[in-house]
Amino acid sequence: MADGFIVPPSLGIAGDRETAEKILSQIWGKRGVFTCTVANTLTSAIPGVSDAGDTPELTLFTPAADAELLVLGRTVCMKGIPINPGGIPTPATLTQAALNLSGMQYHIINAGCKVVPNIPCYDVGGTYGEAITCGHAVPDARKLYERGVELGEIFSRDEDYLIISESCAGGTTTAMAVMMAMGVMTENLVSSSSPKNPKELKSRLVAEALKAAGTEIGGLADDPLKAVECVGDPMIAVNAGMIVGASKNVPVIVGGGTQMAAVMAVAAKMDPSCVGKFMQGTTRWLVNDPNSDIVKIMHDIDPGIPIVYVNMDYSKSPYEGLQAYEWGYIKEGVGCGGTSVGAIISSAGKVDCDTLLDEVHRLYKGILGITE
Amino acid sequence: MADGFIVPPSLGIAGDRETAEKILSQIWGKRGVFTCTVANTLTSAIPGVSDAGDTPELTLFTPAADAELLVLGRTVCMKGIPINPGGIPTPATLTQAALNLSGMQYHIINAGCKVVPNIPCYDVGGTYGEAITCGHAVPDARKLYERGVELGEIFSRDEDYLIISESCAGGTTTAMAVMMAMGVMTENLVSSSSPKNPKELKSRLVAEALKAAGTEIGGLADDPLKAVECVGDPMIAVNAGMIVGASKNVPVIVGGGTQMAAVMAVAAKMDPSCVGKFMQGTTRWLVNDPNSDIVKIMHDIDPGIPIVYVNMDYSKSPYEGLQAYEWGYIKEGVGCGGTSVGAIISSAGKVDCDTLLDEVHRLYKGILGITE
């Protein structure tokens, strides 16, 4: 079947093309469910680390605000919608567009928030993560992972595929720390929601975190949950479990960028048999990011994990806030790539980049109306 | 379509047959999702009120244990499975059987538990209910109702129908209090998990509760959420919202007995437009109960709400614990009637009372093995 499958122009593939086409042909035109796992790590409140919020403190509100925006169409925990400095809208606008066009069911999972969303959420008994520089950021990582496995089993029942994703500001730094502790990353290749990726700061914080945890690069190669416990965030533990729990039953689309790379690294180490049953679903913006290298990151984790990305292009958008995505801002988050890939898959290609862009414009006009 | 629809022998209908057949023909052979809303009310710990647990204190563990049993296939919060005095198993065994045969996806919602299940649950920010005799049992009833509406919207997206249900020991007493405060019930017609329905005690407690709330029979006819706030439990508020939120999109099967009657009374009063879009899904044991009158209860709430029940019969079962259902024990709970009706509907009749009984026996043997 994979042989006869033609990838539509709205999608691109990087890495293991055979596995990507096998999964795509398996779920093409089928029904999926979307989940977004939100969490806080106090790492995001370290000045300079995260641009996912107007100030370091506001980055702690971004996950809850993204979740409220998806479920209610508006935010409750803060005024307006999460923006980067300069008024660039959260990637959740693309996520919303994809969910509207696909009609897919979706659920928010609270892996551990300091600012809890004002909506019904799946609860796993988690608490927010500490700054990784303390060296013991997620004390209950194993319990969160096990709850994640149960969630993966729950959401893969009576479904054709599952999309998982994240909203966790500061997450590229925790992801880098986990991947370095595991030794699957040895240099700073992670992305940033800003084109001015604060690489030196991130590298310094990660080095500090590994030292505080009493380990080094590759020091926790055989204990991925220990790596999450020491220098990760709650989102990584829960989502890694979801991959393992769900991929036993259905294919999984791992929606997101370098943050989700750490999730896939942990899942692949915890249960190598899941490799081949999931793929990363992301955006052209991330794959083409000159300041990060998701293709190398994923190849180093496991060459058997393909990347499928949506060819969204905001360069022709009349809105500067959206054009900024072409200048290197945001690029990914809140499963915007994964849901877009999912909407194209479930609609068997009826949804494409043009219809997605039209819906993003419709939503963005509404947002401007609200925040004006 | 309803004209041509033939109700299979595994199902029975009471009340508005036309609406029942309309809904049945609409979702026959279609895909549904099951939810069970668990909560505690300290009312169950009043000695003599509830038999849903070996002792008054253990009744507080029953909802969490039922939820763990459904999701994990075993209990964590207590040893063995929830039983009534005499070793009669929780109705969750029938619920499990129906879920196994239907393959339906299912989710647990924690409306407010003192004993929280050790599994991933949907959280609505609720806390356990106080004993209704205090007159202010559920302070956040409106918030819980609104979260319920959101949950109903979430679970009705991309589904053909929704089944809601409950596990809340002591719930027939809180249900009676709410229905009396609303004036839809003027005499004690509610059921009990014991054939020795402690009617006098329940009536006395309800009278005490109404007095403590400064109201009387029918005193809160126009304010159903106030009735829940004063003398109800958290489950009623959340599930009533779910009916209102989901029935806008898809038909709803309200799985349960007299406890769910209060839920339907609140929903029908909050949004009369939902009547005609949901039906009660229950068991032959409840409909035939000589110590309660669900048909009159539902007729008094609204003649437009039909009852569809599964004709399960444990009289030929070799197990006394199951035969006891025929002697008036348990009768309903944990959505056993609603999931059975749903399994028959989604399988277009391939699942019937015989296949359900075989699966119950298979599970019950396992339980005996575990608890021996």
Summarize the structure in words.
Two copies of one chain form a homodimer. Chain A is globular, with a radius of gyration of 18 Å. Chain A is α/β, with parallel strands linked by helices and 372 residues long. The relative contact order of chain A is 0.19. In chain A, helix 3 (92-102) crosses helix 14, helix 4 runs parallel beside helix 8 (234-247) and helix 5 crosses helix 7. In chain A, strand 3 (83-84) and strand 4 form a beta hairpin. The model of chain A has no long low-confidence stretch (mean pLDDT 94). The first copy, chain A, has 14 helices and eleven strands. Chains A and B meet through strand 5, strand 6 and helix 4 of A and strand 5, strand 6 and helix 4 of B. Strand 6 of chain A pairs antiparallel with strand 6 (121-123) of chain B.
Share of residues in strands of chain A: 5-15%
Q: Helical amount among residues of chain A, as a percent range? A: 40-55%
Count of alpha/pi helices of chain A: 14
Alpha-carbon distance between the two ends of chain A: 50 Å
Assembly form of the protein: homodimer
Low-confidence stretches of chain A: none
In short:
Chain A is 42% helix and 13% strand. Chain A contains 14 helices and eleven strands. In chain A, strands 1, 2, 5, 6, 7, 8, 9, 10 and 11 form a nine-stranded mixed β-sheet that branches. In chain A, strands 3-4 form a two-stranded antiparallel sheet.
